[in-house]
Each structure stands twice: as structure tokens, then as C-alpha cells.
Design a protein that fits this description.
The strands form 2 sheets. This protein has a 6-stranded mixed beta sheet with strand order 2-1-3-5-6-4, sandwiched between helices. Strands 9-8-7-10-11-12 form a 6-stranded parallel beta sheet, with helices on both faces. The protein has 2 domains: 133 residues, Rossmann fold, CATH 3.40.50.10860; 120 residues, Rossmann fold. It has 284 residues and is an alpha/beta fold. The protein has 10 helices and 12 strands. The structure holds NADP nicotinamide-adenine-dinucleotide phosphate.
Length: 284
């Protein structure tokens, strides 16, 4: 591949960064269409978010993605942050145009696109969210904004769930107890695990998944390694429809790519192309 000054330059920054699937995913989009573009992973420490942002402007990058620990830092660094990103409290996509930086969060619309692709109707749905961290913020704002009837956030630290739900009319907070899990699940249409419980390399997992025995909800886990967490395996055994975190990862990436490049993609067609490639890359 021969690069020129016109080549669209993109990156993903994080610490750690080696595990990120984004360079593979964006590389496959570039290769598929033969775009004059490159997308590289860059290890950037938490104190260096602003330094990298300046450098990306100087090097004429058209944008970059950000993962841990940069998503919150960027709110104070970009020239303009989109309203949704401010509300969610995190930026995962920075667009650079004529020396100015614009921050977005594509996790929220990415989740909506992933659910729509699976045929889930959000409007009027009762949603149960487990966890109140960064990913949960994006998911809760997205679902509430898309017309969910109710969004209940269960969290180990109940105050964090309260802070998240305080200004959202259809949302409420609850403690992460077996009783709350069971009663909320029984009337939920959608249950999303937004905690790292069950993730490869994480010691803790759900102690008790019996709350899935008495629900008709669709079960979603933001984790994609392992491919099926115990939460999703149990949901499948109960006959529930399931979705793991790869769908969100793909859709948020496609939306970022559009923001960086101003190229409009057929999102569902790209998803169909990327899903098996990413699955293979994850060696499943
Ligand atoms: P985070 O900000 O650190 O939040 C973690 C949440 O999990 C908090 O609510 C925390 O509760 C809860 N939690 C952690 N350990 C727990 C335990 N032992 N028992 C009960 N609750 C526990 O993390 P995040 O960025 O939101 O990420 C959450 C998950 O989503 C991770 O697995 C991440 O890999 C995944 N994710 C996937 C995608 C994707 O594209 N698929 C995107 C973003 C994130 P407390 O508030 O009580 O600490």
C-alpha cells in the first residue's frame, strides 16, 4: 500500500491497547473498499490524552477512537463535545477538521443499531440493566432516548445507579440483590449485562443466574470474550434470544468510521461482512 499526504489517517488510543479489535475491524473496511486510509493502534498513557490529541491534529489525522482510560479525559480536551457525549460523560470518537476537534460517543447509537439489527423493538420496552459504569451510561441514555418504557439499573454500588438514573424520567435505580434481579427480570423485555462479571481474565462471575429462569426477555452481554458467558449460556438454555458484545463493538466502530471519513456506509451490510471475520480473529 502506498500512502500520500491525502491518505486518511486514523487511530485508536488506549492503555492497554494490544487487545483492541478496532485496528483489525477498520483495516478490513479499508481493504474491502480500497480506501486510501490507514488506522493504527497507539499506546497512550492516561496523562497523555491532550498530548496525543495535539499530535493527531498536527499530523493531520481525520480522527481517532479512544478507549480506557481516555474516554472521560477527552470531555475537557476537545474543542466541542456533542450533547449526547456530554450527557453520557464519555467520548470514544474524536473527529479532526481544520485543526479543531469534535467529540462523540458512538456506543449509544451503536447499541441501538445492534438491537435494531437483531429485530428488537425498543420503543415501549421494559429494560433491566446490570451495572452502572461507563458502558452502562451509554446504554441507559440510548435506550431511554429511544423510547423504552422503563429502564431499571441494578448496581452493586446503588448510589452510582442513582446518579445515573436521577435525571432520566423513565429510569430507576436498585441494589444488585437476588430479589431485585428476580423481580425485575420477570417483567423485563430486555436484560443487558454491563458489568465485567464472567469476562475472560476476570475472577468474578454471577453467583446465581436463576433470575433468567422466569423471563421472556432478550439477554445481552457486552462481553465477547468468552464468546458465551455463563450469563448468555444460561439464557440460551432458558430459550431466550441472546446477543454478545461483538455486535456493539462492530456498530460503534462503523459509526466512528463514518464520522472520521464522511463516507456513508451500508451499516447492516458491513456488519454482515465484519461479523464472521471478527469472530475468526477472536479464534472462536
Ligand atoms: P466500568 O466503568 O468499570 O463499570 C463496571 C461496572 O461493573 C460497575 O457498575 C461495577 O459496579 C460493576 N462490577 C464490577 N465488578 C463487579 C462485581 N464483582 N460484582 C458486581 N458488580 C461489579 O466498566 P465499563 O467500561 O462500563 O465496562 C463494563 C463491561 O462492558 C466490561 O466487561 C467491558 O469489557 C464491556 N464493554 C464492552 C463494549 C463493547 O463494545 N462490546 C464496550 C464497552 C464496554 P460498582 O459501581 O459497584 O463498582
Amino acid at each position: 500500500m502506498i500512502f500520500s499526504r491525502k491518505t486518511m489517517k486514523m487511530a485508536v488510543i488506549g492503555d492497554p491497547i494490544d487487545h483492541s479489535l478496532s485496528p483489525f475491524m477498520h483495516g478490513k473496511i479499508i481493504e474491502e473498499h480500497g480506501y486510501d486510509a490507514l488506522y493504527i493502534p497507539v499506546l497512550v498513557h492516561g496523562n497523555d490524552t491532550a498530548k496525543f490529541t495535539k499530535m493527531a491534529e498536527y499530523l493531520e489525522f481525520c480522527g481517532f477512537n479512544a478507549t480506557m482510560p481516555h474516554k472521560v479525559n477527552l470531555l475537557d480536551i476537545v474543542d466541542e463535545a456533542d450533547n449526547d457525549a456530554r450527557m453520557i460523560g464519555a467520548i470514544n470518537t474524536v473527529q479532526i477538521r481544520y485543526g479543531k476537534t469534535y467529540g462523540y460517543n458512538t456506543d449509544a447509537p451503536g447499541m441501538l443499531a445492534a438491537l435494531k439489527n437483531r429485530g428488537f423493538e425498543i420503543n415501549g420496552a421494559d429494560v433491566m440493566i446490570i451495572g452502572a459504569g461507563g458502558a452502562s451510561h451509554a446504554v441507559v441514555h440510548a435506550l431511554a432516548g429511544a423510547g423504552a418504557s422503563s429502564v431499571t439499573v441494578l448496581n452493586r454500588t446503588v448510589n452510582k445507579a442513582k446518579q445515573l438514573t436521577d435525571n432520566i424520567a423513565c429510569a430507576q435505580a436498585a441494589a444488585l440483590t437476588a430479589e431485585n434481579l428476580a423481580s425485575c427480570a420477570s417483567s423485563a423485555d430486555l436484560i443487558i449485562n454491563c458489568t465485567p462479571l464472567g469476562m475472560t481474565g476476570v475472577k468474578n462471575a454471577f453467583d446465581d443466574l436463576s433470575f433468567l429462569d422466569n423471563t421472556k426477555a432478550m439477554a445481552v452481554d457486552l462481553i465477547y470474550s468468552p464468546w458465551r458467558t455463563k450469563f448468555l449460556s444460561h439464557a440460551e438454555e432458558c430459550g431466550l434470544s441472546v446477543m454478545n458484545g461483538l455486535d456493539l463493538l462492530i456498530y460503534q466502530g462503523l459509526l466512528s468510521f463514518q464520522i472520521f471519513t464522511d463516507i456513508e456506509l451500508d451499516l447492516d451490510a458491513e456488519y454482515k461482512y465484519l461479523f464472521p471475520l471478527c469472530m475468526k480473529k477472536l479464534q472462536l
